[in-house]
Design goal:
The radius of gyration is 26 Å and the shape is elongated. It has two domains: 137 residues, Up-down Bundle (Ferritin); 154 residues, no CATH class. Helix 8 packs antiparallel against helix 11. Helices cover 82% and strands 0% of the residues.
C-alpha cells in the first residue's frame, strides 16, 4: 500500500514537472528565435535544451502524459520581453525556481537508484539557472536601474509636494503645474549632477550615463505629474490625479526593481508611498499657512 502511494506521489510530481519543464522549453525557445543579440541567443538556446532534457527525464515516469503549451502564454512572455527587457523577463520566469527545487527534493527518496545521479544534476541545474543567465546576459537598463528608481522616486516625492504646497498660494491650476515643471527642470539637473558624483565613487558603469538616466527620468516624471494641472480647473482633482499617476509609476518601477533585484515589493512600495503622501500633506499645510499669513494668492 505504501509503495503504491509513493508511486502515485512520484507520478503526480512528474506530471507537473513535465508540464512546467516543457512550458519553459517552449518559452525559452521562442525567446531564442526572436533574440537578435548572438550571445543572448546562445544562452537562451542552451537553457531551452536544458529544460527539454529535464522534460525527457520526468516523462519516463508518466509516459502517457500529453503536454500542451498555450500560445497566449508564449505571446505574453514575448510581449514582456519587448517592453521590459530580457533580464526582467528571465527573472520573472525564474521566480518559481525555489518552489520547484523544494518539490523535487521532496520526492528524492522515490527516485530509483539508477536515476539518482541524473536527478541530482537536474536539481543542481535548477539552482544554477539564475547565475548562469545573469552571467551571460547583461542589459544596460538593469545596470542603471538604481539610478532610474532614484530619479523617479525623488521626482514623485518632491514634485507632488510642490503641487500640494501650491494649493495654498495659487488659484489657477496651470500655475501650480508650471511651478512643478520649472522645479522639475532645476531638480533634474541637480539630481543628475549628484548621480554623476555618486557613480564616480566605485560604480562599475558609466558616470555619464548614470547622470543621464537619473536626470531624464526625473524630468519626464515631473512633466507627467504636471499634466493633470493643465487639463482641469479643479485644484483638488488635479492633485488627486497627479498623486494617482505618481503612485502608479512608483508601483510599476518598484515591481520592476523588485523582480530584478529580489527585493520585497510590498515593503519597498509601502515605504515610498508613505513618504509621498506624508510630504504631500506636509507641504499642503505649509502652503496654506504661508498663503494665509502673507495673503498671497495668484
Amino acid at each position: 500500500m505504501q509503495q503504491s502511494l509513493s508511486r502515485a506521489g512520484l507520478a503526480e510530481v512528474a506530471a507537473q514537472a513535465c508540464k512546467d519543464e516543457f512550458t519553459d522549453y517552449t518559452v525559452y525557445s521562442a525567446l531564442s528565435r526572436t533574440e537578435k543579440n548572438p550571445r543572448f541567443k546562445e544562452a537562451l538556446n542552451g537553457l531551452a535544451q536544458t529544460e527539454h532534457a529535464h522534460y525527457d527525464f520526468w516523462s519516463r515516469y508518466v509516459p502517457r502524459q500529453d503536454v500542451r503549451v498555450g500560445r497566449l502564454k508564449v505571446y505574453f512572455v514575448l510581449m514582456i520581453r519587448l517592453i521590459l527587457g530580457l533580464t526582467f523577463t528571465l527573472k520573472f520566469l525564474e521566480r518559481h525556481e525555489e518552489a520547484v527545487i523544494k518539490q523535487y527534493s521532496a520526492v528524492y527518496s522515490l527516485i530509483p537508484e539508477t536515476d539518482r545521479a541524473r536527478f541530482e544534476q537536474i536539481i543542481k541545474q535548477e539552482q544554477e539557472h539564475e547565475n548562469l543567465l545573469m552571467s551571460s546576459i547583461e542589459e544596460g537598463r538593469v545596470k542603471y536601474m538604481s539610478f532610474i528608481v532614484l530619479g523617479l522616486a525623488d521626482a514623485v516625492v518632491e514634485v507632488a509636494a510642490i503641487h500640494a504646497g501650491s494649493l495654498g498660494v495659487y488659484d489657477r491650476t496651470e500655475l501650480a503645474g508650471l511651478a512643478g515643471v520649472i522645479a522639475g527642470m532645476a531638480a533634474s539637473i541637480a539630481m543628475a549632477s549628484a548621480a554623476y558624483a555618486q557613480a564616480k565613487q566605485g560604480f562599475s558603469g558609466s558616470a555619464r550615463w548614470s547622470a543621464v538616466y537619473t536626470g531624464v527620468t526625473y524630468m519626464l516624471t515631473a512633466t507627467a505629474l504636471a499634466v493633470p494641472y493643465f487639463l482641469t480647473r479643479s485644484m483638488v482633482i488635479a492633485l488627486v490625479s497627479s498623486l494617482v499617476a505618481g503612485v502608479t509609476m512608483v508601483a510599476f518601477i518598484t515591481y520592476f526593481d523588485s523582480v530584478i533585484s529580489g527585493r520585497v515589493f510590498r515593503r519597498q512600495f509601502t515605504e515610498i508611498t508613505a513618504i509621498i503622501l506624508g510630504a504631500t500633506v506636509a507641504l499642503y499645510l505649509v502652503g496654506v499657512v504661508i498663503g494665509d499669513f502673507l495673503g498671497i494668492s495668484f
